[in-house]
Design brief:
The complex is a heterodimer. By secondary structure, chain A is mainly beta. Helix content of chain A is about 0%, strand content about 60%. Chain A contains no helices and eleven strands. The relative contact order of chain A is 0.34. Chain B has no helices and eleven strands. Classes of the chains: A mainly beta, B mainly beta. Chains A and B meet through strand 4, strand 5, strand 9 and strand 10 of A and strand 10 of B.
């Protein structure tokens, strides 16, 4: 079993829909990251969370430390949101990042 | 600031050939990392350099060597490429090993035939 599990693996949506991507982990962490990888391949950091909730524009990330679960929400989705979204946790003690396999999101007009 | 740059963007090698993937960052970061990304798997750490002058193995170091040439540059060498090393390689850096924010390069797509 992977230490970081994401669901769903693939997701399609119509423009305007509310999107939720989930991440569960099984190790002790000091932080959780959400990353975005565009079709061109580049990876950019969206959020870093250690507790609670963060919001940036139409993106909202939440984390529940007790349940070892995080969600990434996209409100009013747009075709430009189409990308792979990657959850990564920073293992407590080693400072290494452990990555999920990603969720491929396609938003159609 | 260019951030993290990688060269080349694409490369095709024959089995047994060698090559070096180059990575440079202009953010004065101390820590640098090499990852590989394969279909259906999360990024996996190959080697890292916590600071100039040090390098350490990650999760999947076999078949690779690294050099931290100076604070800016961290190269990854494949001495004798194998088809199993076909992958997309990402370099990343962060200010210190304990820093949270990690910055990624654009990736190198390597195919070994």
């Amino acid at each position: 079993k992977n230490e970081v599990e994401q669901s769903p693996q693939n997701l399609t949506a119509q423009e305007g829909e509310f999107i939720t991507i989930n991440c569960s982990y099984s190790v002790g962490i000091s932080a959780l990251h959400w990353l975005q990888q565009h079709p061109g391949g580049g990876i950019v950091s969206l959020f870093m969370l250690s507790s609670g909730k963060k919001k940036h524009g139409r993106l909202i990330a939440t984390i529940n430390i007790q349940e070892k679960h995080s969600s990434l929400h996209i409100t009013a989705s747009h075709p430009r949101d189409s990308a792979v979204y990657i959850c990564a946790v920073r293992s407590r003690g080693t400072d290494k990042l452990i990555f999920g396999t990603g969720t491929r999101l396609q938003v159609f007009p | 600031n260019a951030g993290v740059t990688q060269t080349p963007k694409f490369q095709v090698l024959k089995t047994g050939q060698s090559m070096t993937l180059q990575c440079a960052q202009d953010m004065n970061h101390n820590s640098m990392y090499w990852y590989r990304q394969d279909p259906g798997m999360g990024l996996r750490l190959i080697y890292y350099s916590a600071s100039e002058g040090t390098t350490d193995k990650g999760e999947v170091p076999n078949g690779y060597n690294v050099s931290r040439l100076n604070k800016r540059e961290f190269s990854l060498r494949l001495e004798s490429a194998a088809p199993s090393q076909t992958s997309v390689y990402f370099c990343a850096s962060k200010e210190h090993q304990s820093s949270y924010e990690q910055y990624f390069g654009p990736g190198t797509r390597l195919t070994v035939t």
